[in-house]
Design brief:
heterodimer; A: about 120 residues; mainly beta; 6-stranded mixed β-sheet; 4-stranded antiparallel β-sheet; 12 strands; about 0% helix; globular; B: about 110 residues; Immunoglobulin-like
């Protein structure tokens, strides 16, 4: 079975500051890793994914994440945040059938960007 | 990427009634999933719905409470039966794309049970 731990439930930052949202996973098999964003009153949008290859993954809106197998982590980073990045961010893991396997989500991190 | 719509977008229902949520996809997909997001919580998978077979339910979810239909490759419904206030949640459908190993989510149905 797989599980995901998002270490911070809320992260407040000031505009233009860097941010890191932490995610650790547990699995006995190889996994795919995802970050989704949920803006207020909207559905989920995929930010980025790690399937294989380079451990540094770049996504939309200037976000990137680094897969660290030894630490079983997949932390999300952005060097300079905007007010519009205020949202809830979910880390998720699936088996390596990807689109045909269920996603296991972390509890989410609420990012609040203040002016 | 797949475009997914859900109906209704939100509803307020009385205890003991049932609500059927529709999920429509703009392309044929094999795998469809139904998730629940309780207030302030993460997403939990309810069931996986494949066309032409019975839905597969996760632990803690049963067909009598959450019957699912999957009549074709672009459509599915989830019914929340005999509702109680604890069923107040956002219900989201998603579809899996094997080509790029992603799941795409619908906008969700926000259900409030009084």
């Amino acid at each position: 079975a797989q599980s995901v731990t998002q270490l911070d439930s809320q992260v407040p930052v000031f505009e233009e500051a860097p941010v890191e949202l932490r995610c650790n996973y547990s699995s006995s098999v190889s996994v795919y890793l995802f970050w989704y964003v949920q803006y207020p009153n909207q559905g989920l949008q995929l930010l980025l994914k790690y399937l294989s290859g380079s451990t540094l993954v770049k996504g939309i809106n200037g976000f990137e994440a680094e897969f660290n197998k030894s630490q079983t982590s997949f932390h999300l980073r952005k060097p300079s945040v905007h007010i519009s990045d205020t949202a809830e961010y979910f880390c998720a893991v699936s088996g390596t059938q990807g689109g045909s396997e269920k996603l296991v989500f972390g509890k989410g991190t609420k990012l609040t960007v203040n002016p | 990427s797949a475009v997914i719509s859900q109906k209704p977008s939100r509803d307020i229902c009385q205890r003991g009634t049932s609500l059927t949520i529709q999920c429509q996809v703009d392309s044929q997909v094999t795998m469809m999933f139904w998730y629940r997001q309780q207030p302030g919580q993460s997403l939990t998978l309810i069931a996986t719905a494949n066309q032409g077979s019975e839905a597969t339910y996760e632990s803690g979810f049963v067909i009598d409470k959450f019957p699912i239909s999957r009549p074709n490759l672009t459509f599915s419904t989830l019914t929340v039966s005999n509702m109680s206030p604890e069923d107040s949640s956002i219900y989201l459908c998603s579809v899996g794309q094997l080509l790029n190993n992603e799941q795409f989510f619908g906008p969700g149905t926000r259900l409030t049970v009084l």
